[in-house]
Structure formats: structure tokens, C-alpha cells
Description:
CATH superfamily: Hotdog Thioesterase
CATH architecture: Roll
Strand content: 35-45%
CATH topology: Thiol Ester Dehydrase, Chain A
Low-confidence stretches: none
Structural class: alpha+beta
Shape: globular
Number of helices: 4
Oligomer: single chain
Mean pLDDT: 95
Helix content: 25-40%
Amino acid sequence: MNEQELAKAIVDFMMRNDPFSQWLGIQVLQVQPGYCRLSMEVRAPMLNGFSKAHGGISYSLADSCLAFAANAFGIQCMSVETSISHLRPVAEGDVLLAESTLLDRSTRLARYSIVVSRQADAKPVAHFKGTVFHSTEPWINLITEQP
Length: 147
């Protein structure tokens, strides 16, 4: 299995075992080690009392983007710090895109920037920053044990 095939297998495994990302309706558009691009459509149950998407929706999309990009290197990792700035309101029916950028990576930590934008006008609706910790556990053991 080459690096790209491993990245795809890891994210496929993560999505199969992630009911929340499934509930969000996340679609994986592209993944490679250190990079991910996702989309999802905002639905009525995701709205707040102002009939706009709850802030946790764009946060959750960005958080999944972070997890998929970071884990696609083949080593299990988890976020240790995240933050988000909401820039524009999001409405029901909006399709959101999340795209990660790897800022720096060492043997134990990596920092990412994720931009969440509306597909219709390409305007950013949120900027998300995340730091992940790299464990010593490879993904290959988990994904090859699954049927």
C-alpha cells in the first residue's frame, strides 16, 4: 500500500467509525498525508435560534478536516488545542467546504489551519486553527484488522 492509498484507507476507516461526521453528512473530497478537503450541506436540525447554522457546525466540519489530514500520515494522532473564528453567518442549504493547510510538523506535534467557506460564493465563513499530538501507534494495524 503506497502513501496515498494508506491515507485514503485511514480516512475511510475513520468515517466508517465516526457517527457524528456521518450525521453531519460530511463528504471527503480529497485526502493525502497532511491535507484534506471536505464538504457538507447545512440542514434544518443544525440551525440555532436565529435560523443560522450553530457555530458548532462549522467547528465540527473543521475539526473532522483536521483529524483526517493529520491522521492521513499513518500515525494515530489527536487534537490537543483548537480554536475558531466565525466570520460570516451560514444558512440552511449552504454547502460548506473545509480545506486544511499544514503549517508545521515535528515528530510529536503538528499545527494546521483550516478554512471553512461557502461553496456558492467561495467566501470564508470561519478560520480554524488546530494542534495535534502524534502518538507512536501506526494506523496500519487497525485498518488491516477490519473486515
